[in-house]
Amino acid sequence: MATMTTGLVFLAAAVVAVPVFKRLKLGAILGYLVAGLVIGPSVLNLVSDPDTILHFAELGVVLLLFVIGLELEPQKLWRMRNQILLTGGGQLLITSAVILGLMLLFGFSLNIAIVVGLAVALSSTAFAIQLMSEHRILKTPPGQKGFSILLMQDLAVIPILLLVGALSETSGTAAPAWWVSVLAILVVLVAGRYFINPFLRLLSRYGSEEVMTAAALLIVMATAMGMQASGLSMGMGAFVAGMLLANSSFKHQLETEIEPFKGLLLGLFFIAIGMNLDLSLLVSQPLVILGGAVALVVIKAAVIFAILKASSESSTDAMRIALMLSQGGEFAFVVMAQASANNLLPGIVADQVTLVVGISMAMTAPLVILHSLWFNSKNCPNVYESDVQDDHPQVLIAGFGRFGQITARMLAAHNIPFTALDTDAEHIEFVKKYGNKVYFGDASRLDILKRAGIEQVKVLLIAVDNEEKALQIAQLVREEYPDIKVVARLRNRMNAAKFDALGITHLVREVFEGSIDAATRVLQEYGFSTAQANYYAQVFKHHDEEILKRSIQNPLDAQEAVQRTLQNRKNLESLFNQDKADIL
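Above: the chain's sequence. Below: its structure in token form.
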């Protein structure tokens, strides 16, 4: 009963705090932190033993690292290599060096200064991406430079965690031999390259949605625990597994299955961090804590501003991005928790840094809002998103059989980016050999569509073979994204009215045009002249299109449809007989 009560308290805290903080534009992470602070020992003391909860909730960070790895496609990293290394690497090194110097100046040891400097140099990816999206600058040149800084920080998390482990080796715990860690990495690389995709294809063919969810969790947890057993971190295992699957056709499916668990456990992690925040430190050392938070924001904003100015950004854009990335990040909590658990940092220092990072998060959104209010449209010129090279798909193809592939080939010939979804894993593996960007996933699920980029596309082609499924997709997209243009494959004339009721009028009958061409050729080979054959083909085509329009306007049941078909056949015969004299 105590466990149920604890769960109820966690859920209630999250449900109350997160919407309030998002409404105030302060972000969900800060909402979780404050919720944990309120229910924790510092305020209401509704939940005891926050350390145990924190240990369990660290699984949320493991899942987050897996998802980050999935997003880091090698091609994308290579395209952005200069920005990542120069802009992102410069920010990380300079910020951590400045903070390290200040901590040495205040008498801290070198190891503590290194760990704290690197930890607080990391910004909150979730916080910053949300702010840049809300202010519509994520896809602009300065926004992309801000994104490259976040990307470099995400890449740096694993080395920082490894460094913490290396610096903590004096704790007396026996670590596995170095070759065990190297062997573990090689095993993960080989498994990711040769076994995981065939394993997922087998499950997609014979399993179910629940089995795919279990498989996604199994991959993450098995890799993470294997890495931990070899002397490395669970986070590194999950991150490497994600990167190995970044180009997998199951990428979007894995993201979708992991997301609910990641969201819940990550929220629990931040609540547990909030429970561990020591408010007595703020009361007893207000100048140290508040001064540290202000210093952190000022240092990071100044460094990022200088780097962006050096890369030819305007002062306004540079300051806007600098403020959005000026806070400490969620991984500072992870680093502090690990360093404290390994006795690398005194508990009081870890608590101080955690509190400073939390307050810096609270400061970020108000500073960005004040900056936006101070610089009006006259002083803050627009940056046009059309100037940015955007690799988001412009067309989404639901179903990648022969019908969908024709459109894909024409799009590729015009360099129009597209993404395709299909549920036949073996078919996907085959067509990907020819350079097609196809992913495993059911296009009738909204979460899969979002992962595939539905929010950025201009046109959706519904090319699935199952017309019932096609109607589900059409209805879903019309409800959620009414502005997207939809072209649908039509197999059965009886369903034309259902598509029309959804406002989808661009219906393509899959074999109609090909059948017309075949019939024309048969008439010619039989003995009709080319002119005669083409004429009869056009008469039939016009007649059939009129029938389709009538069936949309006046849908019939099955029995009425049979009678109408017989009548239409008589009308067509009469039409041919009437016009035969004109062309003979």
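Residues 2-168+177-374 form a domain with the Na+/H+ antiporter like fold fold (CATH 1.20.1530.20).
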